[in-house]
Amino acid sequence: MQPVAFIPSPSQGVWHLGFVPIRAYALMIIIGIVVAVWVGERRWAARGGTPGVVMDIAIWAVPFGLLGGRLYHVITDYQRYFGSGRDPVDALKIWEGGLGIWGAILLGALGAVIGCRRRGISVSAMADTVAPGIALAQAIGRWGNYWNQELYGRPLDAFWALEIDQGHRPRLDDGNLDPRYADVATYHPTFLYESLWCVGVAVLVVWAHRRFKLAHGRVFALYVAAYTVGRFWIEALRIDDAHHILGMRLNDWTALVVFAGAVAYLYLTRDKTGPETVTVGPDTAPAAAPPAPAAPAAAPENAPEGAAPAKPAAPAEKAEAAGGREDAETPAEKADESGRDEPSRDTAEKDTAEEDTAGGEAPAADDPGDGADRASDDDRATGATTSEAAESEAAESEAAADPGTAEKADEPGKADRTEAEGSAEPKDAGNAAERGEAEAVKDAK
């Protein structure tokens, strides 16, 4: 039987990169794992989980899942590896196919539980998160059966039928080709059925999660229940060797039991609520203590009670204030202040000496620094007098040569002398007032 249209089988499922074999079956499994982790990470981040946790859990779940899937296959199909004419070493050749999904889910879940406990996160939250990704991984992994030309269904005469080479058709126990299928070239592509079914399951659980706000493991339970429904009818189409119980294949019985368990879990947890831990706990190292607040500035002694203490000026404000005062003082004002300070200092020194003498104590020797300052002031005054005398002689010489020019030249000098005399009068008045006060204090003593 050869239909007009069909799905062709691959010519080979192994490529060699040098001496390293690249097997399509293994590639499909690896791609499925990568997709499952990627989808899981995105969903975990969307619910506020700590980034990278799904990858950490996968490090535990994937090896456990592969081991469980292989063990289930070897146990349920032991006649292929043990017995007369069989080589038990073939049980280790996982690349030749043979992974039972039930064992993969069972031990894979155990590995995930270990990883979640180590990271301190909710097992149910992680299961709900990765459920759609696992379904997609199964959808991709089933294409490994296509490359190996295995696990197909009954003969089919349709355009979507799968062509199977004679070397991969069913055989008898003695290794010869089963005569019932010797002339049959096309069969049900059960790998394609299950792949499409798993994609539908992934879409279903994502929709149900958003529509009904499922949590606490109910998303994962829905995935398991939906998958087992499809696996039940797809398993019934397969013609490969399998154990039968009461006329039904072993995997069908397994699907029924797992389906019942998933539905029971959905019912028992229908009202379960509460938070689920999705973030990794903080480090145990104590956080650094915050800096102590600055002590408030002390209030002035004469400040009224209840008054708020004055805020200390910022360094920039202090600098601006100091700069403003310095800029406001002209050289003339500074000279005026120094002139007023000289008599006051001399008067204060005389008063101090007289008080010490009246008290019976010898007057202290003058400070050499003060004497040096006064000598410096006297030198500057002498120099200023000499300079004024030189200027006066030059002006008289010019006046003798040209009387008109001397008058013009003398006008600014007159103006300067007038200003100097006007400014000297307040200084003399101030100095006289200070000397009068000092003498009054002396007379009073």
TrEMBL record:
It is a multi-pass membrane protein. PANTHER family: PHOSPHATIDYLGLYCEROL--PROLIPOPROTEIN DIACYLGLYCERYL TRANSFERASE, PROLIPOPROTEIN DIACYLGLYCERYL TRANSFERASE. This is Phosphatidylglycerol--prolipoprotein diacylglyceryl transferase. It comes from the Bacteria. Its EC number is 2.5.1.145. Keywords: Cell membrane, Membrane, Transferase, Transmembrane, Transmembrane helix. The chain crosses the membrane at residues 20-40, 52-74, 94-116, 190-209, 215-234, 246-268. Residues 317-351, 371-381, 405-445 have a biased composition (Basic and acidic residues). Residues 277-445 are annotated as: Disordered. Residues 295-316 have a biased composition (Low complexity). Pathway: Protein modification; lipoprotein biosynthesis (diacylglyceryl transfer). The gene is lgt. Signal peptide: none annotated. Catalyzes the transfer of the diacylglyceryl group from phosphatidylglycerol to the sulfhydryl group of the N-terminal cysteine of a prolipoprotein, the first step in the formation of mature lipoproteins. It is found in: Cell membrane. It comes from Actinomadura keratinilytica. A 1,2-diacyl-sn-glycero-3-phospho-(1'-sn-glycerol) binds at R142. The keyword Transmembrane applies. Belongs to the Lgt family. One of its GO terms (molecular function) is transferase activity. Pfam families: LGT.
